[in-house]
Amino acid sequence: MSKIYHHPVQIYYEDTDHSGVVYHPNFLKYFERAREHVIDSEKLARLWDEEGLGFAVYKANMTFQDGVEFAEICDIRTSYQLDGKYKTLWRQEVWRPGATRPAVIGDIEMVCLDKEKRLQPVPEEILQSMMAD
To answer: Signal sequence: where (predicted)?
Structure first.
């Protein structure tokens, strides 16, 4: 696995259900933001605009161990590895302030696709930046 990347996420009232706990699908949104920061949004935009390549979630497995509450600032910890020439595996964890274990764990599989949604090898530019870790 790569090094661990950190991305802070503020929990807003709109992210929660009636009990003040984050509504579970919102964790996918937090994970997506964190991955975008790891890969670099400018690289992702350039790949799409110039080469017609992007990434899509192929599989997501999430484990919920603790509720995350309104007004907390959580640390999204992200690491990844390559899995063949088309796929990357991501381990993402939501850590509450002062916690001894992650509140949520996400294991996300991403594939590279072209604009016609055909499987493509992960671009060399992305591979090089990922291998540098």
So the answer is: none
